[in-house]
Structure to design on (240 residues):
């Protein structure tokens, strides 16, 4: 069964990367949540997509320059709609606690490309183990050095290589990086590429698929996971 990953939660309907977006995604039938991890100045792991808070909050500046206490005061809902005023930037810990008693996988995307957060991989993996969630998590990143680090820290937590352009022989590259999965932009995939990846036993979780015809196409190809802003639409197709 294909995993229905809610991209930043049910971000088609609610402010992305907020607890409300995650909670509503579960209500809509998602079987996975995809989210983004940054780190505050005082070392707290937080869930926000951008390096800066400008787009999705009423604050200004880089996440790395905020202490968590100040970051937690920002409004992360009003930019999307006035009805979501007061939504906060959650922590990794909050999401893990929420997911603990639910049958879902969490895909943490480590945002260590533009800003190199010191020991973000170690901190994230330690937090995952503290909550006994190591078997229900996959770590992805566009920074593939970060994924190699993750595998050195923990061989058992799955990793997925994010990429947005045509990668030559991605199944071979995944083996070289030691990754369990490939997380390609859906435009980069076709039937032959999927076939080769699957033959090597590598998981394929593609992003960001919002069109129902593409959802059906990838399910028919037999990929493992679809990352979407609309988990309700995907759930409807999966449920038949």
């Amino acid at each position: 069964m294909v995993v229905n990953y809610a991209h930043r939660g049910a971000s088609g309907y609610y402010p992305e990367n907020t607890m409300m977006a995650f909670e509503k995604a579960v209500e809509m039938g998602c079987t996975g949540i995809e989210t983004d991890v940054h780190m505050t100045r005082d070392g707290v792991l937080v869930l926000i997509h951008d390096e800066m808070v400008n787009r999705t909050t009423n604050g200004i500046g880089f996440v790395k320059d905020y202490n968590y206490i100040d970051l937690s005061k920002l409004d992360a809902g009003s930019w999307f709609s006035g009805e979501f005023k007061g939504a906060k930037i959650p922590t990794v810990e909050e999401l893990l606690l929420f997911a603990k008693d639910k049958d879902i996988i969490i895909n943490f995307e480590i945002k260590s490309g533009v800003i190199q957060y010191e020991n973000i991989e170690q901190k994230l993996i330690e937090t995952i183990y503290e909550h006994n969630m190591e078997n229900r998590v996959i770590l992805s990143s566009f920074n593939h050095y970060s994924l190699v680090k993750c595998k050195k820290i923990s061989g058992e937590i799955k990793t997925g290589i994010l990429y947005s352009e045509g990668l030559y022989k991605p199944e071979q590259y995944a083996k070289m990086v030691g990754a369990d999965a490939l997380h390609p932009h859906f435009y980069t995939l076709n039937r032959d590429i999927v076939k080769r990846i699957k033959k090597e036993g590598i998981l394929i979780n593609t992003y960001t698929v919002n069109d129902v015809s593409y959802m059906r196409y990838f399910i028919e190809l037999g990929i493992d996971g679809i990352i979407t802003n609309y988990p309700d639409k995907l759930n409807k197709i999966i449920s038949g």
Observations:
- The domain at 3-239 is CATH 3.20.20.190 (TIM Barrel).
- The chain has one domain: 3-239.
